Fold this sequence. Notes:
The chain is an alpha+beta fold. It is about 50% helix and about 25% strand. It has a domain at about 10-135.
Amino acid sequence: MKMEMMVPSTVTYRYNFQKSFVDSKGKKHSIREELIDGQKGLYFKFVHLKGDKFSKVMVKEEGKDKFLVMTKEGDKEDKKTIDSKKLKAMVKDHKDLKFVAEYMKSKDKGEYKAVGGGSCNTKHTSTKRKSRKTKKSTKRKTRKSRKSKSGAARKARKSRKSTKRKSRKSRKSTKRKSRKSKSGAARKARKSRKSTKRKSRKSTKRKSRKS
């Protein structure tokens, strides 16, 4: 079996961003940003679709200090070749190419280096990884919120049960008290009746003896 040799990556920086939304006027927007840099040179692209309006800027490094710029605005297309100085000025003046300006600034500071012998200093994390991280964090937050909600619901149930038990106990105690008070009153009434009967009997006996 032949062993396949691993070819080192020639890309030192890769950036991808994509967004689509509908504005307040009902127009659909689709924005795409892409930037690749490495041994083959710099390449970046910006695409914006706003309703029926379409605009695109694409730049490709073709040689030393030589960049091919292709722009499209609606049906109008334009191609030109410029040097790095003019490219920096163009990127600086174009508000939608902020992601390219930030990369060029960091590259001038020495944060990113060209590939040499298949190794590179730094690689930019893609937006896909960021979106995965954000999705994971949102899932964790939703799980925590669900747990907190379930815990609050359990506490509410326990409090309801305890209040019900207390109300039942209070009802039972009031019933017992009312029963005791009623039985006590009945006993007193019986005693008073018996005493009145005895008194009446004694008085009648005395009267009969005198007569």
